[in-house]
Amino acid sequence: MKIATYNVNGVNGRLPVLLRWLAEEQPDIVVLQELKAPQEKFPETAIRGLGYDVIWHGQKSWNGVAMLSRVGEIHETRRGLPDDPDGTQSRYIEAAVNGILIGGLYLPNGNPRPGPKFEYKLRWFDKLIDHAASLLESGLPVMLAGDFNVMPTERDVYKPERWLDDALFAPEVRDAFFRLTGQGWTDALRTVHPDETIYTFWDYFRNAYGRNAGLRIDHLLLSLALADRLVDAQVDAHVRGWEKTSDHAPVWVELSDKPKKAPRRRPAAKLVS
User: Fold this and answer.
1) 6 given a catalytic annotation
2) Which of 28, 147, 156, 218 is labelled catalytic?
3) Where are the beta strands (DSSP E) in the chain?
């Protein structure tokens, strides 16, 4: 099963790109962020036309998250985090799909730092960490997927020295990310590519994509039950090169149907006396 996250940066303006990618790559489940569309303007008909069930949580002009599935009905469990510090912002949607509980999220950007937006980002992150702990405690196979707006390490950002004052690379935000993963979540992309330079976002300015001057801010985090099923994780970076595309690329994981079997160990040789 192939599960993807994609910040579309405007679902209606980028709809031809989204539909092309869905048709070519045929991911089984997709979470989308930054719809920039009110609830009634989401392009439901076009997406269902490709064989996807879909739920969405829209917002006029900003934010917005959605979930798509072509491997079974989507059973929504919540929209918005418990005790969300600003329930007017559409940033979280959660549903059970094909035996997996998936939380699709769009974490606040937080700039400028310092300031109210940065403080809101930290509060939202704390609420996510609290909710993530309860998801793990459920024992269910769970995934958190989306645009986290954080580069966890220097390997995840082109020229990290230029980002020291940015909310996406702030020590408090990176610490929050590692508090989250420290609960027991597996960073799928970094697990498959432990030492590689791999990005998910390239700015529209200064030929960032052409120079591969990017950021890794879109993440797929797996609970232990799903980490045992991890087969592959990749970035469809070529999509960032398409005309009128998002500044993000789709990121996906492939999961096996069952946990991978550990290699059979040979019995230890007996000592001959």
Assistant:
1) no
2) 147
3) 2-7, 29-33, 53-57, 65-69, 75-79, 92-97, 100-106, 142-147, 186-187, 218-222, 230-235, 251-255
> Would the pTM count as exceeding 0.85?
yes
120 annotated active-site: no
Joined tokens for residue 172: 């408090």
**Residue 98 annotated as binding site:** no
Q: Which domains are assigned to the chain?
A: 2-255 (3.60.10.10)
One digit per residue, pLDDT tens: the chain, 273 residues? 999 999 999 999 999 999 999 999 999 999 999 999 999 999 999 999 999 999 999 999 999 999 999 999 999 999 999 999 888 999 999 999 999 999 999 999 999 999 999 999 999 999 999 999 999 999 999 999 999 999 999 999 999 999 999 999 999 999 999 999 999 999 999 999 999 999 999 999 999 999 999 999 999 999 999 999 999 999 999 999 999 999 999 999 999 998 875 433 333 333 232
